[in-house]
Each structure stands twice: as C-alpha cells, then as structure tokens.
Amino acid sequence: MDSIKVMLLTSLLVFTIFVSSCILNPPHFDETMWRRDVESRNIEKLYEPHFSDGKYFNPWMPVERGKASSFLKWRFTKKASYTDEEKSFKPKVIFGLKDRIKAMPDKDFIAWIGHATFLMRFHGEYWLTDPMFSKRALLPARVTPPAINADELKELTETVNVIISHNHYDHLDAESIRSLPKKARIFVPPGLKKYVETLHKGVVQELDWWESITVKNGTKLVSLPAQHWSRRIGQGVNTTLWASYMLINRGTLIYFGADSGYFKGYREIGRRFPNITYALLPVTAYKPRWFMHYAHMNVPEALDAFRDLSASFFIPIQWGTFHLGEEPPGYPGLDLKKNIREMNLDPSRFIIMEIGQVKTVPKTIPLDLEQDLRKDVLSKKTFFRTNPRK
After folding, report:
1. Beta carbons within 8 Å of 158's beta carbon, 6+ residues apart
2. Per-residue model confidence as pLDDT tens digits over 15-31
3. In angstroms, rounded to a whole number, what is the distance separating the alpha carbons of residues 319 and 300?
C-alpha cells in the first residue's frame, strides 16, 4: 500500500509540475517554420486516396499526433489578455429576416444566420450551410442568437438543399437537423450518411472530394478538400470525412470554406474554379497558434486563402457566435478589419456581414463557364481514379 501511495504522490507531483510549467511557459510557435512546411507540400496529393484502415486523412499533410495531450496542455497554458473592446465586440443582429426574405421573392441572395450557417437562394432553390439553430454546440453557449429558426425556415420553403461540412458539434447539430423541413435534401461527406438518416427522413447523399451534383434549377454543388479532422461522441477520430464546397449558380461561384487550416489546396481550387465571386472563409478559434494552426486559419492566413482563390469578395464566417478558441468570439471581426487597414487592402472586397444581413446576388448566365467547369472537374475525378496513392 505504501508503495502505491508513493507512486500516486509521485504521479501527482509530476502532473502538478507539468501543469505549473505549462501555465508559466506557453509553447513557442514559429510562423515561418509552419509556412515553410505548408509550402513544401505537394498539390497533386489533393487527388490521392484519403481513406485507409477505417480512417480518413489529409494525404498532403496528415494530422499531427498527440492531440489529446495537446488539448490538456492548452487548457493549462497561460492565456493571452484582451482589451475590453476585444472582449465585448460582437456582430450586430438584424431581426426580421424571414419577413425581409418574403418581401423579395424574386431575388437571389446570401444571408448570414450565424456561425457557419448561411441561407442562400438561387432561382427559387434554397441552400442552407451547416445548420445550427441551437443554444449550445454541445457545451459552448451562443453569444448571439440565430437570425432565423427552423420554424421560420419552414414558413419560407418546404424544400431546402442542406450542406454539412463535417461532424463537429458547431457544424452538425442534431436538433437542428431534426427540425429541418421534411423535404430537405442533405449533402454530407463520406461516413456521415447513416448517422444523419437517423435524424432526418429526407434524402441524404454523400459527396466525396471532387464529386459534384446538379439540382433541378441548374445549380451545381462540388465537394472539395479542406484541412481538418473529425470526431464526435459515438464516432471515432477521423472515421468520417470533412469538406469544403463550391456552389456554381450559373455565372456566380460561391466557395463555402467551412472549417480548415491553411493549405495549398486553396491555390488549386482557385485554379480549377476561376472567377469565384464570394469566398466564405472561416476566421475563428485560431489562438493559441501552437495548438490551432493545423485545423484553423488565423486572419492573415484567411487573407492568403482569399488571394489564392482569386475570389472577388471575402465573407468571414464562424466568428461572433461561439467562444471556441482562446480569442473572444467577436475578436476575429476586429482582427480582420485591422489587417485590412494595415495591409492597405481594398475594403470594398470585404463583406463583414451582420447576423441577419442579406447580400443580394446578381443573376448572370455565362453558360460557357459552366461547361468548362464541368469538363475540368470531370478530368480531375479521372485523375483521382487512375492515380492511386503509392
């Protein structure tokens, strides 16, 4: 018994020393080394198989090991300080979204519901990204309300195309999925179909990276790579895939970046899909950098991704709703504005939306662009099939 007590006391002492050292000494992160690592990766690996031994992975840069221990270290590391403005700043909430949409029945639009949830309409067809109407994302509580709820959505439409990017709780909310219109059609990455079918009786379809589908009004959805990971209670680490998406609405291309770290895939996506109109890119949970850099972009990286995509407009997403990283929920909005000023960027290209704000989308129809894109994606799907990972 004495030997067991000694072992327990020794373990407790070691743990206490470890915790104390972490609190006093936050790990150093070298941005230059990280960018050098990113730049060294091979773009062609974006098209290689990304599933092996029951797990999905990013073939260009597999996720770093030791995530559980890193999480504990983060929790016990000394946190950065923020000003009162940085702590309190949040996006405004513009109420009455449902009635405003009803008052513009013929217009195409993008509306921010909050976090990664956007409601869009093209030629009468509604699209909804990562629906999250609940008060909590498992544990984190909302700091701003959603601009619309499920009942109001049902008043607008009986049908909606729903895009799910991955299985983290702030992107795949079970109660929100259950509350969708009965005729909702849901698109998910591989591995998530069976689970989502337990939540909703509508059509659920899996789309792997580089696969696409066209709905009845001609709008095309293309699943694309992202640098992220997956985990959920009842679903093991990386047993389901993650994705970003391109919506091609005739001549308007909208890139939904979902959740991702910075990677060279943005350059390839920009090359394969020229003339992107709106890039919806995540800016949240990027501090501390030593812990968040792989799966979440900071603001300078998001600006680099915007440049790589060659998009016309940048719309920041995922900020101002949940406190997920070290930084306050509204901090990324201020950080983005600061970087735009300091880098002397054209502010007209940045649409920093308020929750409930509606951005109308012009209707354009350059059919030759659609045809070129269709051929381009199909050629890359052929590359994917004929070049197995060695």
Report:
1. 181, 182, 183
2. 544 554 545 567 889 99
3. 15
Residue (of 147, 186, 188) closest to 165 by Cα position: 188
Q: Of the candidates 174, 118, 186, which has an alpha carbon nearest to the alpha carbon of residue 147?
A: 118
Inter-helix orientation angle 299-309/331-342, to 10°: 60
Among positive and negative, which fits the CA dihedral 173, 175, 176, 181? positive
Q: Identify which of 280, 206, 278, 248 has the alpha carbon closest to the alpha carbon of residue 373.
A: 248
Distance CA 206, CA 53 (A): 20
Instruction: Give the span between the Cα atoms of 259 and 289, in whole angstroms.
Output: 16
Q: Which of 45-54, 187-196, 243-252, 367-376 has the lowest mean pLDDT?
A: 367-376
Domains and CATH numbers, the chain: 86-381 (3.60.15.10)
Express the helix, strand and coil content of the chain in percent, nearest 5 each. Answer: 35, 20, 45
